[in-house]
Amino acid sequence: PWRSWPVLALVLAVLGGDLDGVQRVVGGTEARAHAWPSQISLQYYSNGNWHHTCGGSLIQRNWVMTAAHCVDSNRNFRVVAGDHNLYRSDGSEQVFSLSKIIIHPSWNRKNVAGGYDIALIRLSSYATLNSYVQLAVLPPEGSILPNNYPCYITGWGLTQNGQLSSVLLQAYLPVVDHQICSSPSYWGSSIKTTMVCAGGDGVHSGCMGDSGGPLNCEVNGQYQVHGVDSFGYKQDCNTKYKPTVFTRVSAYISWMKSVSNN
Fold it and tell me: Minimal CA–CA distance to 5: which of 56, 66, 70?
């Protein structure tokens, strides 16, 4: 599968980071079909077929939030909403071409740990909201969840056997607060306050193919997307004291509003 991964995955292997274009849910279980209706599959066209590369979240009927590193290439992309099994049609899918990709202006592909790993995709048409396709709920600007707060990662990324999952997986990934995650035995100075860490128990994690996808955390009875999957530990996605690192959504609310309003 390396051939189908973005070149960035190879670069990060060298850096010891994991900004894979393709991250996996390791140790996850199959999600109930359409339990996460704001989750999308970002796919690219190659050799006559569409291939899943990243996750993302539908935040407005014509806007998707994903990771900058997922769309930082000249590939031909599409977005599929309402999917569960990537390899068969459930009749619930909505497929969109892209009209614009807006990567955060401070994103630097050579410095993943610098942060700003967030992008917005404007779809060429509007999604129809129904029981399969819904908008993600974003957290209030600046909100930060406490250590060990229960969250879930979802995605079609690589599993223990090194294959992309055909069905959407979910895994329990509690928050690791900034003080712990930026300590020397964890990620150290790679972790910025604009990131959120989750997991790191050596059992569950994100991996290649989950990038761009959500960290879903229940707040006041509804799930909010608090993170955009950014990077993990390249040597083995699932490594103790190396939690999956997400772009912290609440740090970019005003930027996203300004982009979508313009």
Answer: 70
In the residue annotation, 89 being an active-site residue is answered as no
Q: What is the pLDDT of residue 126?
A: 98
- The terminus-to-terminus CA distance of the chain in angstroms comes to 39
Task: Considering only residues 204 and 249, tell me which one the structure prediction assigns the higher pLDDT.
Answer: 249
- Residue 4 annotated to the active site: no
Q: Which of 69, 104, 178, 226 is catalytic?
A: 69
Cα–Cα distance for residue pair 1/175, rounded to 1 Å: 30
Q: What is the pLDDT of residues 60-96, one digit of tens each?
A: 999 999 999 999 999 999 999 999 999 999 899 999 9
pLDDT bin (cut points 50, 70, 90) of residue 232 is confident
Task: Give the whole-angstrom CA distance, residue 94 versus residue 126.
Answer: 10
Helix (H, G, I), strand (E, B) or coil at 191: coil
Catalytic residue among 18, 20, 72, 117: 117
Q: Which of 211, 226, 229, 250 is catalytic?
A: 211
